[in-house]
Here is the input.
Amino acid sequence: MNLPVLVFFAVFFMAAACGGSATPAADTTSQPLVFLPKDEGPHDAGIEWWYFNGLLTDDRGREYSFHYVAFQGEAASAAVPYLLQASLGDHAAGEHLTGEQVLLDALDQNAVGVKVRVNGWEMQGDGEVYNLKFDLAEYTLDLQAVSTRPPVLHQGIGLVSLGPAGDIFYYSRTRLDVTGTMAIAGEQRPVTGSAWMDHQWGDVIGQRVGWDWVSVQLDDGSDLMAVMLWDPSDRTPFSGYGTLVSSDGSALTLKQDDVSISSEEIWTSPATGIEYPSGWTLTVLSLDLSLELEPVLVDSEFAGSRYTPAAYWEGEVRVTGTRQGRSIGGRGFVELVGYDPRQIETAPAP
Here is the structure.
């Protein structure tokens, strides 16, 4: 959250890689715990991921949405496992495609950014510019994403609590300009768009937490991240927070009692039978902000992974609403983790 973030998928896949790593400790000061650009690169942590979502438009005016995430597991001897997952929505065609790649590589803690390449897939970047490449069925994407705003440290210091799952370092780059090409059945088309980037790392127990996570880029130039965290065994909420980024790049931390994410609709996946909320109301009381989030493609489930047993929902949303009584719109992404019962039924290996 992703939270891009998607903790438990990587935990299931990476759990066999054992070794020592530093657990984020609670901090009682207001000093930042994330240091950039150094922390843009990989860490020897239990789990780490770099996550992107975005909306693209081609030269014919057709819209597409994507998410792309690279999970890095804990180092074991000289090997570090990676799991890359991507999805692509073709809005006009009503298609939602998913795919994944895995590899073992060396851990370079002196790297200035992320650099993962396997079977034509690539995620590489240093915090300023990212190169993103992946292919799904007849679609091949080759994108460059350039950050246009300063990074945002969530909770002000870049360390957030996942409740019983532990603490994790977390920052975002909330607006990136995207250019590149998309090949559809071999036909090249130029694309442009906007993206969002999350980077998180730490030692967490992923099956202990579920979440509803939202990233929004509003038409007034502001960006918003909001997340509600809950126990997947009984859906009891235990935490939530948000961050508002103004058009000048300044950030405001939003507390749990200020943020609400709710839904009155249910979508049942025809592939897995899992019930997900669908269509959300996001409110921030202190900002007099109320947003309606409607999924562009209702069927945006990521299921059937060969490496992670549980499914999740990840998709583009259209945003409408009001702020201080004035109409406002935008685009965003919603991520739903913890609705698949297999998340709590399956435990990672020791």
Observations:
- The first strand starts at residue 47 and ends at 58.
- The two ends are 25 Å apart (CA to CA).
- The mean pLDDT is 89.
- The longest helix spans residues 7-14.
